[in-house]
Fold this sequence. Notes:
The chain is α/β, with parallel strands linked by helices. The chain has helices at residues 2-17, 22-27, 51-65, 85-98, 110-123, 153-166, 180-195, 214-223, 234-246, 262-268, 270-273, 288-301, 307-326, 331-340, 389-392, and strands spanning 34-40, 68-69, 72-80, 103-106, 126-129, 146-148, 171-177, 199-206, 227-231, 254-257, 277-280, 352-353, 359-360, 363-368, 381-387. It folds into 2 domains: 32-151 and 287-360, 3-Layer(aba) Sandwich (Rossmann fold), CATH 3.40.50; 154-280 and 363-392, Response regulator (Rossmann fold, 3-Layer(aba) Sandwich). The relative contact order is 0.13.
Amino acid sequence: MRIAKLGLLATLSLGLAGPHGAYAQSSRISDGVVKIAVMTDMSGIASDMSGPGSLLAARMAVQDFGGKVLGMPIEVISGDHQLKPDIASSLARRWYDQEQVDVIADLAGSLTAVAVVKIAKDKNRIALVSGGGNSRLTNEDCTERSANWSYDTYAMATGTGRTITQQGGDSWFFIAVDNVFGRSMYQDAESAIHAVGGKVLGVVRHPFPSTDFSSYLLQAQASGAKVIGLAQSSAEAVINIKQAAEFGITPKQRMAPMLLMITETHAVGLKALQGAVFTESFYWDRNDETRAWSRRFFEVRKRMPTMIQAGVYSQVLHYLKAIKAAGTDEAGAVMAKMRALPVNDFFAKNGKLREDGLMVHDMYLMQVKRPEESKYPWDYYKLLKVIPGEQAFQSLAQSRCPLLKKP
Length: 407
């Protein structure tokens, strides 16, 4: 009898654990649902470049994946961190502890991103950064449970700083936002400029956010530098560029934004920004794939997507592919698959998530068109150069990530 009971129990266990058993399906997905939370700036200075558009991008990724993974539903929620680290931290803890959130995506703003990735590590959950961009995220602040997806300060500053210096813009003065993002952007740009024989004559820092840059621009003008580098948010950079034109600083001195979003270009117009050279990870009009996805996005948002929003789609889609490949939503197993699988979508081809948490992919050196060069709505940029991922981003040998085992 005892043997018979054991045999019956074994048969039931095999049945439930089999590939078609309902219990097996749900047991591989914690709480029977994959919960994705988009944490971003919904109404502040970063809302156009991330915000509701990032939420839409995440939902598009879920829709394109099929709405379920391993037979279980996928839920997308959102929250506004207002670009404040304390709010971001509180929201992350609540989501992870009380609402069973599996992954937090976007994380616009460097300080908020740094705060949340540390919590994700402590809670054994995942944080995917698209909007933070601080190179510290894959250096000093790298974790086993986070990834930086769309861009970082190293790639943006190096691509722009190196190219403009090599083209003859070999003396620079920087206007930088006085926070962790601005400091990282400035340091990365300074290193790139020095590496190709340029020099930095000075830097002036401003609080975040700021709208009046007249005194900073006058200092930059007085420096006599050929190039005025802008290590600040995209919104602040375009204000600087407009004010520089009003003061007659340009075209005598060249303005070089380290970060420029297409939504800001659209708001300000080509006349004010024409000729600006900058580095991007995504442009809607680059090829048939980017155009097709961007037009779907435009139908809802009535504006073209930024690289942050396109990156949110890519990171969420790759996350879901990794769950399917791992057969579970357990954070460690999913991150292992995210690193093992190549990233192949309209955002990146053969992208690679490295062990330091950096997703390496091609970057693009772009130039803002003159008004007469634009042939249709949102036709704003021309591609100057494709920067291969291994050249665009910091190498593993340069990385300061403590996870890397170095001799």
